[in-house]
Design a protein that fits this description.
Helix content: 40-55%
Number of helices: 7
CATH class: Alpha Beta
Distance between the termini: 38 Å
Radius of gyration: 17 Å
Number of strands: 7
CATH architecture: 3-Layer(aba) Sandwich
Strand content: 15-25%
Number of domains: 1
Strand order of the largest sheet: 3-2-1-4-5-6-7
Shape: globular
Structural class: alpha/beta
Oligomer: single chain
CATH topology: Rossmann fold
CATH superfamily: NAD(P)-binding Rossmann-like Domain
Length: 242
């Protein structure tokens, strides 16, 4: 059976970094099914760098349920059943105070993360659970691992807690046998996701930690959590710089 990875949100900084990592160690049996909403040019650069890489790109707006359903169909039509599943999407960070609540934005963030994950899980996990060594990793955040999240991040925090619950529900139903389903909660990372964040917040994090995490800091953790030897299921794993 081929080594097939399905990355949802693959054009993110984390996704493109991990694809490059996979491409570098490609033994010729690798197929990457890469979803994106924007920034398809990232895949052009990867294809140019690794011309032998078998990568299939699918565009879809995960805030639209019909597009998520079409994405599932288009991926299934390739005839590939993913052995490794990575769920990485999130809208770009933007502050939201409760007194300035934008319910449309909360609902959009929920659809992009928790709702689309549930639809994708129902579309792929029944087949994946039949594959020995199948693994799924869901990108969460350290804020759902901490006792108290920061202020003014209403839509992001609500969506991530919903995604945590969705991951747990999927792990309870489909995981624990051949398929293991887990979450990863990294510390603040220096990615384009933070482009709207107050620079002082990032400066404070650098002062406390020495530097911000980078997508490269997650590569070894992803490798471990997606390996056949990783036998935990339904766990939210925190990753920090120490």
């Amino acid at each position: 059976m081929s080594n097939t990875y399905l990355l949802i949100g693959a054009s993110s900084d984390v996704g493109s970094t991990y694809i490059r990592h996979l491409a570098k160690k490609n033994d010729g049996d690798l197929c990457i099914l890469a979803h994106c909403f924007g920034r398809p040019e990232k895949f052009d650069a990867i294809k140019a760098e690794f011309p032998e890489l078998d990568i299939k790109v699918f565009k879809a707006d995960l805030s639209d349920l019909s597009e998520t359903e079409r994405l599932i169909k288009d991926i299934r039509d390739t005839g590939r059943v993913p052995e490794k599943f990575m769920f990485l999407p999130a809208p770009a960070f933007s502050y939201m105070r409760l007194k300035e609540l934008d319910t449309d934005r909360v609902e959009q963030s929920f659809r992009i993360q928790a709702e689309s994950f549930l639809k994708l899980a129902s579309g792929f996990f029944p087949d994946m659970k039949k594959i020995e060594g199948a693994r799924a990793v869901v990108m969460l955040t350290k804020y759902v691992a901490d006792e108290m999240p920061p202020k003014f991040m209403t839509d992001y925090i609500v969506a991530k807690y919903a995604l945590l619950g969705a991951m747990k529900a999927a792990a309870a139903e489909y995981g624990g046998g051949k398929l293991m389903i887990n979450g990863i909660s990294p510390d603040m990372m220096d990615t384009s996701f933070l482009k709207n964040m107050d620079p002082k917040i990032k400066e404070m994090a650098v002062y406390q930690k020495g530097r911000l995490m980078m997508p490269e800091d997650l590569v070894a953790v992803f490798d471990e959590m997606l390996s056949a030897g990783y036998l935990l299921n339904g766990v939210n794993r925190s990753v920090t710089l120490g």
